[in-house]
Amino acid sequence: MPLPLRRSCVAVLLSLFAACGGADGNDLAAPDGRRNGAGATPAATAALPTTPIPTSNPTSSAKVALGRLLFWDPILSGDRDIACATCHHPSFAYTDGRARSIGTGGTGLGPRRIASATDPQITPRNSMTVLNTAFNGVTGTATGDPLQAPMFWDSRARSLEGQASGPISARGEMRGAHFGETTIFPEIVTRLTAIPEYVSRFTEAFDGAPIDQARIVDAIATWERTLVDHDSSYDRSRSGGPAMSAAAQRGERAFAASGCTHCHNGPMFSDFRLHRLGVPDLPGTPHDSGNGNDQFRTGSLRNISRTGPYMHNGVFNTIDEVFQFYRRVDRRLDPALDNVRPPQGNDAADVKAFFDALSDGTFDQSIPGTVPSGLPVGGAIN
Q1: Would you say 29 and 272 are in contact if contact means Cβ atoms under 8 Å apart?
Q2: Are 335 and 303 in contact (CB under 8 A)?
Q3: pTM
């Protein structure tokens, strides 16, 4: 479920090869235009830059602490049973480990979560990770404009602030059946205003300004910008530390030689553009046309080893299945697909070692002991 955060309403989320080429209709700057073929060397990449912070939503410790509580508090859902963290949980690298997320009315956590028997709400897409979504849109060394950062699988929202309200307002995600799109946030504001701790925390975080929708999403976005993984093998090697393992180094070269660095490059290993790949529908589900033209955003490869299932609908359970898909992909769908030749055999094993080196960093996995509403932390997940 593309809940607040950074999963991407990410993420969070991330598919392995959500795209591998340029296509019409993209509105973000293209990468440097290089196309890698056999014998290519890895594209120039770098460790993550400084976190972009919008001037309209400056960070503060009080705002971060408030956003963290809101992220975990099911009071933001219509039926008070689901939180942002339900589908973006640290146990699954801030995804939920499911092909498609289960929204309001469900119980349990991650792959064990069960939809309501009477009103099942299963989202159409895979939950993108919230980790590193502060860097969405960053394709080079510049930090980029955080207010233009693309969010969701179809890039329909820009900025973490713009994304955060989407899941709260969605019927099958957090809103539920008892409130409308125009009434859910007024209801949430009323609820939060009735809780003294939230009143105090909003007062501190926003210089005495009252609780409203904009400040709710600003706080959540501020918290999400702190969810950055640190000290991966890849980043250590790029910062003058120990080299990656020999297998990971071979895998980096094999990955470039496979032609996928044309779209999976830069510090986030994504061009953040929309592409049409012909990913098969998940059996038993209706076709998802993405942005309306069967296009979906290139997913970051950071933490890819931790964030399966893969693609916008979670149709592939393993990275090997993704490789197999690219071996038979219809190369007429996107010009750059002509250059993609997925690794096989030993090369495939080495590329997976490289992906592990992008996924072995550390990140905040702490969970609040309580939330100000007194509701179960994270919603109905037990």
Answers
A1: no
A2: no
A3: 0.89
